[in-house]
From TrEMBL:
Gene3D superfamilies: lambda repressor-like DNA-binding domains. GO terms for molecular function: DNA binding. It comes from the Bacteria. This is Fis family transcriptional regulator.
Length: 97
């Protein structure tokens, strides 16, 4: 029987070994943000068109924000979305594992 070096290791360690931890983390964070924005828009009864107008941006830009796999969004876009939704954007750096 062969020994698997990944059995018992943390997922973060495995992803780091494969060199994809940062990418996977960014996608996970973006998915949560996209879900939160979508939920708040629904709670407030805002359509995508209404949200884009209130953010003073294009519908295409809003679609990028709501795309859970697109991590190329700006802090300015996130801040505008939070403001329209009556929320405050909070970002922080934390110690690594």
């Amino acid at each position: 029987m062969t020994h698997n070096p990944h059995i018992g290791s943390a997922l973060d360690e495995l992803l780091e070994e494969d060199g994809i931890l940062a990418e996977v983390s960014a996608i996970a964070i973006k998915r949560v943000l996209a879900w939160q924005v979508t939920q708040e828009m629904s709670n407030l009864g805002l359509s995508k068109s209404q949200m884009a107008v209130q953010m003073r941006t294009s519908r295409t830009s809003l679609d990028r924000l709501l795309d859970p796999d697109n991590t190329s969004i700006t802090l300015k876009t996130l801040e505008r979305a939070a403001t329209v939704l009556g929320k405050r954007l909070q970002i922080e750096l934390v110690d690594g594992v």
